[in-house]
Design a protein that fits this description.
By secondary structure, the protein is mostly helical. The radius of gyration is 22 Å and the shape is globular. The chain has 15 helices and no strands. The longest helix is centred in the first third of the chain and has 33 residues.
């Protein structure tokens, strides 16, 4: 609570310094956008946020309602929370996508939006895919480390959730781009529909399969969000999945998973297994991603440059230190396309 209060005060102070009073008065006095439009946009955003929270948490409520089993509910909530940890990158990126694309939409620069979104999607897909591979292989060890041995039984549920969590991570990145265009009502309808689908499937699957059925219903609800989002973006002229190669990425993840699975059976402490598996898997995955051309080093430069100045400047400095190593791993030289 104190940390949140400090961040709120600090943000207000920073905003006060960045936005002069004269600028604020001019903006309030103008009719572009009209107050009615702002109120409507805000209300639709609140509705969208409410449906999103319902989608994230309705599964736990449904499990408890349908099973009346506190242990099963706790295991399902544990698996859901562990699966959602991998959204850390998506949460960070989606926070800047709204700002980065709003002006581009306003100016009709859809080609630049396509470039930005496609690169961000590929990066998120690769990083999230790698993290979820770690979770899949080391599910029992991660649950025991974070929640305790009593929650290791949530591992099968956690693994069932992984495909849906991966799909929704891409949807969460596309959502702010559509939000920046103003189509908030459509986003709310999609997420609301996914929440309703989750409830419908849960009523069918939970009585028969227990919390594994709940994992299937929640994972399916997460997964279906991506398709209408992608269709909406495509209809707006944005090629979000340009350069996306599912087959190559799947090959890279399978090879990485095999390396991790081999280490997961090593007769060493669990923490050491996870560290060794993460490091070895990360090296294998990064090498395959660069060698197979899933990501090209110059694309990192363009992605960092497209971010707001407050983020791109330190990002460019940090990336400059590892750029030569990445070029070497990719088998390319400075100046290669």
């Amino acid at each position: 609570l104190l940390g949140n209060a400090f961040m709120a005060i600090r943000s207000l102070v920073a905003a006060r310094r960045l936005v002069p009073r004269t600028t604020l008065r001019t903006a309030l006095a103008s009719n572009d956008p009209r107050p009615r439009d702002l109120v409507g946009f805000t209300l639709m955003t609140m509705l969208y946020a409410s449906f999103s929270m319902m989608l994230y948490r309705s599964g736990v409520v449904l499990v408890h309602h349908l099973t009346r089993d506190d242990t099963a509910t706790g295991l399902f909530a544990t698996a859901l929370q562990m699966a959602e940890f991998v959204w850390v990158l998506v949460i960070a990126v989606e926070g800047v996508m709204l700002q980065s694309t709003a002006r581009l939409w306003h100016e009709g620069r859809t080609a630049e939006i396509s470039l930005l979104v496609s690169r961000a999607l590929r990066a998120v897909a690769l990083v999230t895919g790698f993290l979820l591979t770690c979770v899949f292989v080391f599910a029992e060890d991660l649950l025991a480390l974070y929640f305790g041995r009593a929650f290791v039984g949530a591992a099968p549920v956690l693994r069932i959730l992984i495909p849906g969590v991966f799909s929704f991570s891409l949807g969460r990145l596309i959502g702010p781009v559509l939000h920046a265009r103003g189509g908030v009502l459509r986003l709310a309808a999609v997420v609301g529909g996914a929440t309703a689908l989750n409830a419908l499937l849960a009523y069918v699957l939970v009585p028969a399969w227990g919390i594994k059925g709940a994992a299937v219903s929640t994972g399916t609800a997460y997964a279906v969000v991506l398709l209408p989002y992608a269709i909406s973006l495509r209809s707006a002229g944005v090629a979000a999945f340009h350069g996306f190669s599912p087959a190559k990425q799947l090959l890279s993840l399978l090879a990485t998973g095999l390396v991790m699975a081999t280490i997961a059976h090593a007769p060493v402490p669990a923490v050491l297994r996870m560290v060794l598996g993460g490091v070895a898997g990360g090296i294998v995955f990064a090498s395959l991603v660069l060698r197979l051309g899933l990501v090209r080093v110059p694309e990192f430069d363009a992605l960092i440059a497209s971010l707001p100045p407050s983020i791109s400047a330190p990002g460019r400095m940090a990336f400059g230190r590892v750029r030569p190593l990445l070029l070497f791993v990719a088998g390319r030289r400075e100046g290669d396309v």
